[in-house]
Amino acid sequence: MKCPYCGHLDNKVIDSRLNKESTITRRRRSCLDCNQRFTTYERLEVMMPVLVKKDGRRESWDRQKMVAGLEKACEKRPVSCDDIDAFVDEIERKLQDFGSKEVASRVIGEWVMEELPDLDEVAYVRFASVYRQFKDVSEFVDELQTLVDAREVKEL
Predict the structure, then answer these.
(1) Cα–Cα distance, 88 to 112 (Å, whole number)
(2) How far apart are CA 110 and CA 94, in angstroms?
(3) Same domain, 25 and 84
(4) Mean pLDDT across 13-25
(5) In the chain, N or C terminus with fewer CB closer than 10 Å?
């Protein structure tokens, strides 16, 4: 592991801990050259399916892209970074369970649309406005009505 302070490659691990779900290992390290301490996070790398975009392009799964999109949708909302990480973890589990080497990006978008109202309804509306590419206000109102109807069904 390269020291972020001096670039030296030799360091020692001072402490290792797992997160609550035992999916990420947090390691405190000390550089053997400059003695600065830094933290690294290790996550199991699982082969994810390739995404097939609307235009037919193929793209590797990028967790950070999804996190960034959700952070944008949840901006100034009472949604923590941990909530977003847990949300993306669930999407990744679905991808792993999908059982195919390729998956249409549309499928992932629909998974997000199904689950996002439970995380934050305002974030859902923001995400939907970009994902569905509303052409006019009536499409936007229709989507809001769908959200309201779904909420009423859950309350019953």
Answers:
(1) 9
(2) 12
(3) no
(4) 90
(5) C
Q: How far is CA 4 from CA 29, 31, 96, in A?
A: 11, 9, 32
Task: Please write the tens of the pLDDT for every residue from 74-116.
Answer: 999 999 999 999 999 999 999 988 888 999 999 999 999 999 9
d(CA 35, CA 19): 26
* 54/79 same-domain check: yes
The model carries a pTM of: 0.64
- Judge whether 4 lies within some domain: no
In the numeric block, the tokens 């109807």 are attached to 149
What is the spatial distance between Cα 5 and Cα 27, in angstroms, rounded to a whole number? 17
Does any domain span residue 89? yes
Q: Mind spelling out the 3-state secondary structure of 63-91? A: HHHHHHHHHHHCCCCCCCHHHHHHHHHHH
Distance of alpha carbon 28 from alpha carbon 136, whole angstroms:
52
Instruction: Answer whether residue 136 shows pLDDT above 90.
Output: no
